[in-house]
Write a structure and sequence with these properties.
The chain is an alpha+beta fold. It contains 7 helices and 3 strands; from the N terminus they run αααββαβααα.
């Protein structure tokens, strides 16, 4: 990791990345009306019951309270993983176009069932076709999503077809639960992953 393989990657401007999150300049004016510590309280409702469609009573909807839970979509997944830092460059995976919104797919696990279980497929595009850190990047994306999403989501991270010289082997590694579990027990690798995930918002 001391030698940079792609010293001149294509970099996107952070303001050009697709996001649903508010920009920091507009956040300050809105948050002051809710209180000084409003930004420290997480607004996520996933911690209550991840299998419920909406966590609110009928009286809430009658009062005009807009507290219904929206389903998780591709944009939200992108917002979760685009800020992961690249292990080789001091830039985010979104800025390097390693993760792209059109390469994220959410689908029901069983199309015939009414179950709330969903699969999330993220296809990553390495900056170069012989990137030696593609498996580490895929593992970082997988760890981030498994930590952030409710348990009803099954995460699948793959190398986009035709973007890596050993894509099949990397996909096999990322899809093997035993290999992933063994990798997460490696303290050196966990140190790299923690550093990658430090920049997540």
């Amino acid at each position: 990791m001391s030698e940079i393989l792609n010293a001149n990657p294509t970099i996107r401007n952070a303001s050009d990345l697709p996001t649903r999150r508010q920009r920091t300049s507009s956040q300050s004016s809105n948050k002051n009306t809710r209180g000084l510590f409003a930004s420290t309280i997480p607004s996520s409702t996933y911690l209550t019951d991840p299998f419920s469609v909406a966590s609110g009573s009928s009286s809430d909807s009658e009062n005009g309270d807009d507290s219904t839970v929206e389903p998780i979509d591709e944009q939200e997944i992108y917002d979760l993983i685009s800020t992961i830092s690249d292990p080789e460059h001091p830039l985010s995976l979104g800025s390097l176009a390693v993760v792209n919104l059109p390469d994220i797919h959410i689908a029901p696990l069983s199309p015939t069932s009414s179950s709330l279980l969903r699969s999330v497929l993220v296809e990553i595009t390495p900056t170069i076709t012989h990137c030696s850190l593609a498996t580490v990047i895929g593992l970082g994306v997988r760890v981030r999503l498994e930590q952030a999403l409710p348990p009803r989501f099954r995460v699948d991270v793959r190398i986009k077809e035709g973007t890596h010289s050993t894509g099949e082997q990397v996909n096999k590694q990322l899809g093997d639960k035993e290999r992933v579990a063994a990798a997460l027990e490696n303290s050196t690798l966990m140190g790299v992953l923690r550093k990658m995930l430090e920049t997540c918002q």
